[in-house]
Amino acid sequence: MSSAFMTRIAKSADRLSEIDQKIVDALLERRDEMVFLSGPQFAEKIEVHGAAPTRLAQKLGYKGFPALRSALQKEMLSEQDAAVRMKRSVRSTEEGNYLSDLIASEIAALNNLEELIPQAEINQVADKINSARNVYIFAQGHALSISHFFSRRLERFGKTSVVLSGRGRDVAERLVGMTRDDVVIMLAFRKQPAAYAAVMRHVQQIGAVSILVSDLAGLIMSPEADITLAAPRGRSGNEFQTPVVPTIIVSGILLTMAARHEEVTIGALEKLSKLFADFDKT
After folding, report:
1. Which long-range contacts (CB under 8 A, 24 or more apart) does 175-178 make?
2. What confidence tens digit (pLDDT) does each residue in 134-143 have?
3. How far apart are CA 32 and CA 80, in angstroms?
4. Rounded to two decimals, what is the model's pTM?
5. What is the CATH architecture of 115-280?
């Protein structure tokens, strides 16, 4: 937990009420989950008055609960070194039950997903993609595997997709044809990729819609996307993490597209089936 945060707690200890202490305990014991919630969501989660998190934040010298939450998010990000995260994962697993521990952490993350990313936001993203001329998918590093899955599924729905990967100049070359009628999906995890800001600046200049699918790091990436779908992955940001949660988010978008725009998506899949049958004859 942030030393700055703990210092503020220590200095204000004599002024903290029982409700304040309940909030502090939740932040200390369940940081990975709680730092994603808004003030009202946090209050509901631990069953306190809706204004209580804001009052505590101000008592500790923050402008409000979002500022307190942002400070804790940045602290978590500063701890995210791959080697250290892997060591912590191994050491924290009891009796060598690594698979069981991993499954449990992923289930916990998935159980929180619906609360953090409501279906209404998924609907909005699905509609934006459906109405887009082209879909650009930005991905670097580990996000590439998800981008290829996403791109191939969109192509099957009849959407033209362009994967923005590689070095900066490679990405720039693929951006030349972008228009305001396009959608850009940014897949970025753990920390902001080097080319992220340049891509987002271009997207904003063109007037295209930007959508960020991310984990904790997405909440402080800049420039901010038009729509951000961010949720913590299975383990703490301090430990080894898998692509399960972002893959579920992407799959949820695809499934929602199929359901909300059935005539277009299913029609494209039927056309693809006929093409498969024809090509299989050769």
Report:
1. 175/136, 175/199, 175/202, 177/134, 178/134, 178/136, 178/202, 178/203, 178/206, 178/208
2. 999 999 988 9
3. 13
4. 0.70
5. 3-Layer(aba) Sandwich (3.40)
